[in-house]
Amino acid sequence: MTDTVVGLKNITKQFGDVLAVDNVSLQIREGEFFSLLGPSGCGKTTTLRMIAGFEMPQIGEIYIKGEPVTHLPPFRRNVNTVFQDYALFPHMTVAQNVGFGLEMDKLPEVEIRQRVEDTLRLVQLPQMGDRRPSHLSGGQQQRVALARAIVKRPDVLLLDEPLAALDLKLRQAMRFELKELQHQLGTTFIYVTHDQEEAMTMSDRIAVMNHGHVLQIGTPIEVYDHSADHFVADFIGETNFIDCRVISCNGETATVLIGDEIKLEVACDQNAAADQPGTVVIRPEKIDLHMKAGNDGQETAFVPGIVENMVWIGTDTRFTVKLAGKVEVVVRHQNMRLGDPLVALRRGEPVYLSWQKMAARLITS
Amino acid sequence: MTVTKRRRGVLGTLLTPGAIWIVLLYIVPSLLIVVYSFLTKKLGGGVIWEVSLDSYTKLFGYNPGALILNDFVIIFLRTFWWGILTVLTCLFIGYPLAFYVTQQKPATRNLLLLLIIIPFWTNFLVRIYAWKFLLGNNGFINSTILSGLGLRRIPLINTPFAVLIGLIYGALPFMVLPLYASMERFNYSFVEAAQDLGAGYFRVFTRIFFPLTIPGVATGCILVFILAIGDFVVPTVLGGGKVAMVANLLSLQFGNAFDWPFGSAIGVVFILLLMIGIVYYILSEIRKEA
Ligand SMILES: Nc1ncnc2c1ncn2[C@@H]1O[C@H](COP(=O)(O)OP(=O)(O)OP(=O)(O)O)[C@@H](O)[C@H]1O
Ligand SMILES: [Mg+2]
Fold this sequence. Notes:
The structure holds 2 protein chains of 2 kinds.
Chain A lengths: L3 E12 L2 E12 L3 E5 L6 H9 L6 E6 L2 E2 L10 E4 L11 H11 L4 H14 L15 H13 L5 E5 L7 H18 L2 E6 L2 H7 L2 E6 L2 E6 L1 H6 L4 H6 L4 E10 L3 E6 L3 E7 L8 E6 L5 E3 L9 E13 L3 E7 L5 E7 L15 E7 L4 E3 L2
Helix pairs in contact in A: 2-3, 2-4, 3-4
Chain B lengths: L4 H33 L2 E2 L5 E2 L5 H7 L10 H32 L3 H12 L6 H12 L4 H9 L11 H25 L4 H8 L4 H29 L3 H5 L8 H9 L5 H30 L1
Antiparallel strand pairs in B: 1-2
Bound molecules: adenosine-5'-triphosphate and magnesium ion.
Magnesium ion binds next to helix 1 of chain A.
């Protein structure tokens, strides 16, 4: 593939007896915003550091623009990093920090000055060149770190939780700015985060990691709506997990039994054997609530239940509904209409649930 | 700038003991020496309270025995020159040594630091006498190593070389410890950031590591320089009185020569020279901050 800019092939990295990254393969495409998402300690930083050249894998190859770089030191790779703690050189001014990489490339001073100025303007820090990093706010330091990394126009920009040190408001604003910057530059971004919302809002594609493994690679919509397994579904957004037993499965749709009474038709991505235990996954906002009973349709499932609990959150109401066989399901109901009778429901009252059959999926891993 | 009156009061109270200490033990004696240097020598020690510039004319004036510089100026120059040599050698040895120590595992690091500090548990004079044994004409180096190898003995003791060895030996820990402290504090993510931006090992050192350890270098150099140029024991014991430094000259004036005003004048000039250096350093630091 020609549009792969970074390739990881069966990468394994061990620290002592800690297996930080276990047989990871990734193909990151030219110009995309790619996120490595996972909980603390899952190996995101280690993966990023191997691409940057700060760590060497024990097994596997890393390619940048088709060239194997696995054993090249960081200063021989055309990638730049925005460090989580920024690592701005305290003995240099902002301009000297940003110009450092260009100076290392022995560019003429005039060009360095021009490019530093342009880049500082790009990250909205004009006229800050003469300041010391220690005299800047956290958000400004973050921009300097960004400027320093993009000024060399790398093939790939690596970002390790660059927003983690900022307060919530600034962090949310910076998401859009980063995305906008990436769009303007057209540079490939590899972005490490443990914040699923951050990954969902910014990325073109996400690799979800856990315990050194990549569990799923896909667009935000794919990992959200077609989570590959229990962990991914749980890590990304809110989900109902309902234990079930497989009755039949053809690789695309399956019929499952929940408890002893509820028989459901659901989507499935892999084949599953009859009588195998599994989990039905359905997002709370994909379920509709009704006051009156209805029937199963060709495409919709219809199930009765009893209101167990409800919390009004303004934009929507969060119901916990008990189905037959003590199965509990969380439903998010949009508060679209004034005087909605559903919102007036009380604990213990009957209610009816419906959803698109294919919105519920069987997971067996 | 925005220190309130009350806080200033608290600060003042906290500073009082230290201020009294400094005034009584440093400023008063120093002023006394300045006064003495302008008085007249009294035979057998002490001063006559009669203003005189004799001491200074003697120190800087024409000396019939010497060609261009008089003996006293030569001793000053030699002292400063050896101070510089000691500083440079200590830096040259101490910088890699301190770096090596910081790279070790914590347990090894503490052991190595302990080894550097252990000599302080023994009196300096005793340790310098140990060097006399090592460097003597029948000492360890000459009689055991050189003769053992069938080589000719070389005179070591009572030479400038022996004095320099002693000065370096005595001052080295004072170079290593501040260097270690500044390297210990060094944040290695700066190294990664520099490498990431294309700096190889050499430029990581010259552009990042060394500049960020300069505070340690400066502290170490100042400490070592002050210790070296003020040393009395080393030139006496290892130099055999043949290679005098300012401290020897001083002790001679207050001791054998009983010329207190001249001794004071030497002290005053010595302190002034040092202060010029230190004030210059402090000013340049302040300018850097601004
Ligand atoms: N230099 C190292 N020496 C030993 N173990 C390490 C080293 N670096 C990472 N590890 C271990 O490897 C595993 C993965 O670490 P990594 O830093 O890649 O996680 P992460 O996904 O970035 O987590 P976080 O979100 O907390 O930053 C962890 O168990 C960690 O303890
Ligand atoms: Mg990390």
